[in-house]
Structure formats: structure tokens, C-alpha cells
Amino acid sequence: MTQKNILFIMLDQLRADALSCYGNPVLDTPNIDRLANQGVKFNRCYVQGTSCGNSRASYYTGRHVRSHGATWNGWPNRLDELTLADHLAACDMSTYLMGKTHMKPDIAGMNRLGIEPQSELGRFLSNAGFGQGEHDDGLHTVGVAGGYGTGTPAYFEYLRKHGYAAKNPWVTHANAMQDEHGILRNGMFLKYGHLPARVDKVHSETAYTTDRAIEMIQHMGPQNWCLHVSYIKPHWPLAAPAPYHQMYRGMDLPQASKCAFQKINAHPIYQAFMDLPQSQTYAQDDYRNHALPTYYGLIKEIDDNLGRLFESLEQQGQSQHTMIVLTSDHGDFFGDHWLAEKDLFHDVVTRVPLLIMDPSPTADVSRGIACDDLVCAIDLVPTFVEWAGGEPQWHWLEGQSLLPILHQTAIIDRACVVSECDYGVMNFAQDLGRSMHNARMTMLYDGRYKYVHCLGFNPMLFDLQEDPQEFSDLGTDPGYSAIRGQLSEQMVDWSAGLKNRVTVSQETFGKQLNKAEQVGILIGYWHQEDVPQGEQLEPEVPPH
User: Fold this and answer.
1) Who's near 273: CB < 8 A, 6+ residues apart?
2) Does this model's pTM top 0.90?
3) What domains, with CATH codes, occur in the chain?
4) Contact predicate 81/126, CB 8 Å
5) pLDDT digits (tens, 9 = 90+) for 299-329
């Protein structure tokens, strides 16, 4: 049997338009572009969640946020939720991790079932099914309430081994700078992004992640494997090692996409996001334009390292049977729409790059094409399962396989894509009269209209055909009431079609059809003659 592998690459907080293959006029990403040239570039791929955690949970389960329930960063998946590793195990494919998942263990659930969190099963369940490899979510910050990260990552020991002596070298070196006065500066502050991080580029988080991924592939052996290489960057802190910190400084970079009338009578939730301190910072062009070159530099650094990873794959003879997939968990406003970060549903956040290179000869017909079909993050799990030779468990999975596009046998027939946001942890939620139970937004995009249901508020609506920059909210425009009604009904239909009956497979469901008559349950029949032929006879008369 031919070996089949999957190299599943994810960048954190990467905008699609930051790549040259998606039209960036400044940033050249030749190694990522090579995937577009040798595979398929998906122009309209949408994530199902707008934060790191809920989006990744959808990537790893093949299910919508409303189905898996991990609505925010660090919210655990339920223990019974099948993940990519579970689905691929049925295909005799092992899964490995190098990098970030943003998944946390369901400790309460494990305690209830008597599972030791540090056991092999406990580690498997704690990490979205990636029980093998190295988990590092980055962000090993230290504040007045303690540290954000948990445990001591292997990267700490690696840095100390290479001369970066510190209790927390992530804070003092990998994501710190030193100014012209010799003062140590925190990489969390955008002001210092023009300075290089205090690590050599060969010891950065990105280089370390790449080195470890190469080592893992070298030791894989002949078995089928899926390696999830999940880079922490270009997510903040915006601290790039030399020379990446200054590669794009002083260049004519794209300006923020925003207009003044967006701030007039803005939707209450949109206004609350604009009022956040980080949005207030990025809304100032000087600050935003100072930070953008560093963001670009971090992306360029990843592209250079991907060149090393791809070269190693080829040298080991693995490239001819390895599907390579590159995507992002979400984008970044970076000052667009007067906003920072993510969470809302504009395309700069929800539309992510997706590149798939299938090495099989059946995919030769699609090499170098750009696909405009609506596709989703949740499409990857069924795609991986089918490519590995398995049968997707459709009573669980809510996406569609993309193999028909890769092999040019069919298009994706999808009426809409849906993404969700839970803003209950935001400080402003209570000010808006919301709680942890009802601070929810759901976006439905049908290829033209983007409709956002805001629980407790009027909806938002954007017409991307007439307003591709998403400046004009038509959520209360009387002229669009019929459109809003249609999209609202479509959202109800979508919600009703989610896969909640996960304990019954399609095969089992099929066996249930007409089973009542077959086992003698004859409800409402008048006589034997009314029963379908062969289903059930009258009971025999007992002997006297």
C-alpha cells in the first residue's frame, strides 16, 4: 500500500491578503506561493469561529462552534467530541503536533470519568487529540496575576542551552527588545516593533518550531502520518528577530481600509469593539503603520522557514506522498474598520488563506488553479479522511470533502458559510446587558450578502457585491427588509441541520427504517392484510 502523509500547516492570525499569492503588493512569500502553483488556491475559505480557540476547535473536529461548544479561547472540547486524530486513526494514520492548538483539558470531565489528566489518554484528550509531539501555545507572559501560559515549554530549555540564560527566556529574549539606551523593552508594546527581538533568527519561535517539525518527520518511519505544524506567529507579540524586524520598514505598505461614516450611528456591538483600547491604538494610522512592517517581517520569516521544511521533506523522499495544507485560524483587522484583533466578521478576519497541494496523479488536473467556491475550515477533516482512504463519519462531520475540487470531479455545492462569535468574556458585554449565556453573534454569508444575527440587538447586513469593503451596514435599512428576512430563515434552516445525533451512524440509522414492523410492532393496523408483505404474521394459536 502506498504511504500517505499529511503536513497540516497553520499560521496564527494570518490575513489572506498578507501573502503574495493572494495579491499582496509588497510581501513576497515564494515558498507559500509554491503551494498555490503546485496545488489549489481557495479564494473564499471561511473560518467557523473568530477567535483562536473556537476556530481551531472547528478545524480539529470538522464541526461548527455551536456543535462542539468550545466557544472561546481555552474552553475545552467535550471529552466525547471526536477530533482529527480520532477520524484518522480509523485510516491507520497517526497524528502528531508541533506548536499551538489553544486547546485546554476538560479536567472536570476527566475527574468525573476517572481519567488521570497526565495519562496517555488524558494527554490525548487534553490536546485536541494530538497526543504525540510537542504542544506550545506561546504567550508565556508574566503579569501581576501570574503567567498566561502553563507549564515549562521545551522551548525554554532550548533557549537556555543556546545561551539565553533566564528564568523565562520567552519574556526576556524571544519576545523582548533592547533599545538604544540598553533598556530591556517588552515586545507586547507596539512602540518597540522596530527593534529586533533578543534572539538570533535561528533560535526564534518560528525557527524552533520548524527545526522540531523537521526532526519529527525524520523519525516518522514508513507509517502513515499527519503532522500539524502550528506556528505561533504572526500573532502578537510583534517581536521579530533581525533582519525581519526591518525588512519592510520605510516601504509603501497598504493603508488601513476604513471610512469615517462607519463610526456614525454604529451598531452597539460594533461600537463596543471600536471602543476597546487595542482598537483605539490601531485606529491611529501612525501606530498601525509602525506595527505593520513587523507583522510582515514575521510572515516573511515563516515563509523562509517553510522553505527549509519543504526542502527537508523532499530530501527525505516524503514529498511525493505527502499532502501539504496551509491555512490560518483567522485574520487580523490591523486597523481596518477602526478595529484591532479579530472577533467580528469582516472578510479580513473570517476569510483565510487555504492552499492544498495533493501529490497524487489524480490531482494533476487542478495544479495552479484558483477556486472561488465557498469552502470552510470544517471541510479539512473530511478531506483528510477521504485522502487517507477512509470513509468520513458523516453523522459527526458538518463540512464537505474538498477532494472533488482537487481532482476536478465536482464543485462544492454550498448555499452559505457560517461563523460564530461569543463575546461574553469581553468587559463590555455586561454594559450591553449581555451575560455569558447570551453574548452571541452568528454570521451567514451566501456569496453576496453577509448577515449577522446579534442576539438581543438588530442584525448587521453587508452587500459584498456592491460594497466589497464592507463599509455600509444595512442591518436596519428598510429597503433590505426582505433580504434580511430570507437570510434569517436560512440561518434557522442551517441551525436545524447541525449534527447533534452523533451516537447514531448513518448505517445504524438506515437499519432503523421500518424496523418496528420487522420486530412485531404493528401500530394502528386493522388486520394482517394491511401489514406490508413479509413483515409480520399473525401469532400462532396456542394448542389447547
Assistant:
1) 279, 339, 343, 344
2) yes
3) 5-496 (3.40.720.10), 517-544 (no CATH)
4) no
5) 999 999 999 999 999 999 999 999 999 999 9
